[in-house]
Amino acid sequence: MSFPLDCLFCQIVAGETDTEVIAQNASAIAFRDINPQAPVHVLVVPREHYADVAALAQADPAALADLIALAQEVALELGDGDYRLIFNSGPTAGQSVYHCHGHIIAGKTLGWTPA
Ligand code: 5GP
Ligand code: ZN
């Protein structure tokens, strides 16, 4: 399967980095964020390249469902099962990597100051 050569998360999916994959299913993989913002901060990304979550939802809703199922699995494995799942979409919203990814944030009582 071809993928954007300059996409960091495609390279991680392809096993071309030393990133440890901590969970996976047919459609998605999970790995720890390099700059964690909470005791549990894990990224879930589809194996296929889509720029953001809306593009994934439109092209492959089953893969998005798999990605969310994987997020819940990780939250149950690494914490008590409660979690926040964040998809930054667009630069103004803080997206810096243009390969769809959800941030699983958990492991503490979370505040609510996203804006
Ligand atoms: P965004 O800002 O696009 O919502 O999220 C991108 C996330 O990717 C950031 O939280 C950033 O810390 C993480 N990240 C960037 N480069 C790497 C990397 O090489 N490895 C890992 N594991 N995470 C990365
Ligand atoms: Zn990619």
Question: Describe it for me?
Answer:
The chain is of the alpha+beta class and 115 residues long. It has a single domain, classed as HIT-like (HIT family, subunit A, 2-Layer Sandwich), CATH 3.30.428. Helix content is 27%, strand content 21%. It has three helices and five strands, in the order αβββααββ. The chain has helices at 8-13, 53-59, 61-78, and strands at residues 21-24, 28-32, 40-46, 84-86, 102-106. Strands 1-2-3-5-4 form a five-stranded antiparallel sheet, with helices on one face. The longest helix has 18 residues, at 61-78. The protein is globular. The model has no long low-confidence stretch (mean pLDDT 96). Bound molecules: guanosine-5'-monophosphate and zinc ion. Residues 8, 19, 31-35, 88, 94-97 line the site of guanosine-5'-monophosphate.
Distance between the termini: 38 Å
Q: Give me the Rg, rounded.
A: 13 Å
SSE run: HEEEHHEE
Treating each run of at least 4 consecutive H or I residues as one helix, how many helices? 3
Please report the total strand number as a whole number.
Answer: 5
Q: What do the pLDDT scores average to?
A: 96
Shape: globular
Cross-sheet strand order for the largest sheet:
1-2-3-5-4
- Give a list of the ligands: guanosine-5'-monophosphate, zinc ion
For the sheet with most strands, the description reads: 5 strands, antiparallel
Q: For the record, what is the CATH homologous superfamily label?
A: HIT-like
Strand content: 15-25%
Quick summary:
27% of the residues lie in helices and 21% in strands. The chain is an alpha+beta fold and 115 residues long. It has a single domain (8-106), classed as HIT-like (HIT family, subunit A).
